[in-house]
Fold this sequence. Notes:
- Helices cover 37% and strands 28% of the residues.
- By secondary structure, the chain is α+β, with helices and mostly antiparallel strands.
- The chain is built from three helices and three strands, in the order βααββα.
- The chain has helices at residues 20-36, 41-62, 123-132; strands at residues 5-17, 70-82, 85-96.
- The protein has a single domain, classed as Histidine kinase-like ATPase, C-terminal domain (Heat Shock Protein 90, 2-Layer Sandwich), CATH 3.30.565.10.
- Strands 1-2-3 form a three-stranded antiparallel β-sheet.
Amino acid sequence: MSHRTTAKSSGLTVRSTSTLESVDQAESDVTRIAGEAGFDEEDLHRIGIAVRESMVNAVVHGNHYSTKKKVRFAVSHSVTNSDSGPPKDCLAVVIEDEGEGFHQKEVPDPLAEENLLRHSGRDCFSSKHLWTSL
């Protein structure tokens, strides 16, 4: 028995300046594409926040607002149809900066008692939580 799979996709890729305006544009683009794909209001809110947090990290911590560095933002939506089950929606988001990078394991745990009152350090944690909860 063979299973046939077909896919339909749409998307957008942008290289933008390291500004907070690019953060706003990325959030707008991802929520528009996700909305067109049929994601509900709660998911749109979560997707928007996760993209905003990730873009701010790229602009502020990765590129340090450098006018010489760009942020690559890509979003794609695809629907895969298969003979063996219902269609599956996939929203993929890629955000890349031109910074030096970091190791996730070196980021302090924002839930550790000594970090609870810090004003920074929650972005990676919250973005990961938002993405995995969708």
